[in-house]
């Protein structure tokens, strides 16, 4: 980590400007050696300077160079950012010259990895950087910003502090039983303390359901037998003719996807092939895919035709989705009804009138309480990695509670309690393995 790295930090392609970031001990002198302008080794920190990048007395590009001196930088190392014109050839040429100066091309996420290793960010905050870059909605942006600002880390540290106090008292009891000022930890007073930790962890997990919903969106499968209007509904919802629509049953033979934003949450619609019995090999593959999507979706919209009686295939789909979050959409409500239904969460509409589709959206808002989510405090966990670590920590505390009712000494229970503390430490990076860092930061873009 002691070498100097460089990478293009802006998206690849043609644009007004590109930014090449350099970080490390040699960042300033190396860039100064190819910069025709002020002597960058003598300028003040956090200043920007006009000049040219040169090689063999040839001007490569007209640039603005920003200089940031350690420790008040993103990586806590010296950083130089070169603002070049956004042409692909120009940007690559400047990067090539930097590499010729002995700098190393940064690995994906290496700038943020250095920020973590140098104490600029904890691991949860570092992970949120990538979430902020990839945020596609306003709620995703706010969620990532809160995590990046350390608000989630503070909640984790609060629970760790409670566990640490308990561990310290247990250790004193074991190692210094004669120490009278220490709280004596017994099976009786251990239960309420473990229960307090359990409740804190359960609260974090309960909040995380909202965070996961914001970050991952809602996967919505539109299902039904052939020719009930599934593709027309998808096209109308996303306002795009993405799915082929004909009067011929079985037109949709593969998965077709589209996405909209509702109350700040991404709805990922999936139009599936009509579910029915068929001897056609291609259709059968489509039906099998539809059943897979049905099992993995967060929400199922089951489409029925208002002017047709229920078929055996309709009844089969109804039975498959009874224990799943679903809405039954009665399509073609402008035609005389031939349906006899005793179902909940019914929505009537059609694809020629906007009213029915708006009612469908309103039902989704109601089912997932999206109005509440939009106004809630977003200082919550959303990362799958963090959620899994909290779940493992909760399992350890539950084991300790369970074993506390058995004839197991308190010092043995401390093993599970210590494990919970260590697992929570992995969230913020206070305890970690090098393999974790490699995996986590490899998902970042190259210049971050």
Any chance you could write out the topology, listing elements then pairs?
Elements: E1 5-8, E2 15-23, H1 27-32, E3 35-36, E4 47-55, E5 58-68, E6 79-86, H2 88-100, E7 104-105, H3 110-117, H4 123-134, H5 138-148, H6 151-175, H7 187-216, E8 218-223, H8 230-238, E9 256-262, E10 265-271, H9 281-296, E11 299-305, H10 312-321, E12 326-331, E13 346-348, H11 354-367, H12 370-375, H13 384-404, H14 410-428, H15 434-441
Parallel strand pairs: 1-7, 8-10, 8-11, 11-12, 12-13
Antiparallel strand pairs: 1-2, 2-6, 3-4, 4-5, 5-6, 9-10
Please describe what this structure looks like.
- This protein has 448 residues and is of the alpha/beta class.
- The chain folds into three domains: 5-121, 2-Layer Sandwich (Gyrase A, domain 2), CATH 3.30.1360.120; 130-213 and 381-441, tRNA modification GTPase MnmE domain 2 (Four Helix Bundle (Hemerythrin (Met), subunit A)); 219-373, P-loop containing nucleotide triphosphate hydrolases (Rossmann fold, 3-Layer(aba) Sandwich).
- 46% of the residues lie in helices and 18% in strands.
- The chain contains 15 helices and 13 strands.
- It has helices spanning 27-32, 88-100, 110-117, 123-134, 138-148, 151-175, 187-216, 230-238, 281-296, 312-321, 354-367, 370-375, 384-404, 410-428, 434-441; strands spanning 5-8, 15-23, 35-36, 47-55, 58-68, 79-86, 104-105, 218-223, 256-262, 265-271, 299-305, 326-331, 346-348.
- The strands form two sheets. A seven-stranded mixed β-sheet has the order 3-4-5-6-2-1-7. It has a six-stranded mixed β-sheet with strand order 9-10-8-11-12-13, sandwiched between helices.
């Amino acid at each position: 980590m002691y070498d100097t790295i460089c990478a293009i930090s802006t998206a690849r392609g043609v644009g007004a400007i590109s930014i090449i970031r350099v970080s490390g001990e040699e960042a300033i002198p190396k860039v100064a050696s190819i910069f025709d302008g002020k002597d960058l080794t003598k300028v003040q920190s956090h200043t920007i300077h006009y000049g040219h990048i040169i090689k063999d007395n040839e001007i490569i590009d007209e640039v603005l160079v920003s200089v940031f001196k350690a420790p008040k930088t993103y990586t806590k190392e010296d950083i130089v950012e070169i603002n070049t014109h956004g042409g692909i050839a120009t940007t690559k040429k400047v990067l090539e010259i930097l590499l010729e100066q002995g700098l190393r091309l940064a690995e994906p996420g290496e700038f943020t990895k250095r920020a973590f290793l140098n104490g600029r960010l904890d691991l949860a905050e570092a992970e949120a950087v990538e979430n902020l870059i990839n945020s596609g909605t306003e709620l995703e942006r706010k969620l990532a910003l809160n995590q990046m600002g350390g608000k989630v880390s503070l909640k984790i540290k609060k629970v760790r502090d409670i566990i640490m106090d308990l561990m310290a008292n247990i250790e004193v009891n074991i190692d210094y039983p004669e120490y009278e000022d220490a709280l004596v930890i017994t099976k009786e007073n251990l239960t309420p303390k473990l229960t307090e930790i359990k409740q804190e962890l359960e609260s974090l997990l309960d909040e995380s359901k909202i965070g996961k919903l914001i970050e991952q969106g809602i996967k919505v499968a539109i299902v039904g037998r052939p020719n009930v209007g599934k593709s027309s509904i998808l096209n109308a919802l996303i306002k795009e003719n993405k799915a082929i629509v004909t009067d011929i049953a079985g037109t949709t033979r593969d998965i077709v996807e589209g996405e909209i934003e509702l109350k700040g949450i991404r709805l990922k619609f999936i139009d599936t092939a009509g579910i029915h019995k068929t001897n056609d090999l291609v259709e059968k593959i489509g039906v099998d895919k539809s059943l897979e999507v049905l099992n993995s979706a967060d929400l199922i919209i089951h489409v029925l035709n208002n002017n047709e009686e229920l078929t055996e295939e309709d009844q089969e789909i109804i039975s498959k989705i009874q224990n799943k979050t679903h809405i039954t959409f009665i399509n073609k409500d402008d035609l005389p009804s031939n349906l006899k239904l005793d179902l909940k969460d019914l929505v009537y509409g059609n694809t020629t009138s906007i009213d029915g589709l708006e009612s469908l959206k309103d039902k989704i808002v109601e089912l997932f309480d999206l109005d509440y989510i939009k106004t809630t405090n977003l200082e919550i966990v959303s990362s799958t990695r963090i959620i899994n670590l909290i779940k493992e920590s909760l399992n350890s505390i539950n084991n300790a509670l369970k074993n506390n009712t058995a004839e197991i000494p308190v010092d043995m229970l401390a093993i599970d309690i210590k494990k919970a503390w260590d697992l929570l430490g992995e969230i913020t990076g206070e305890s970690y393995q090098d393999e974790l860092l490699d995996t986590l930061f490899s998902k970042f873009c190259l210049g971050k």
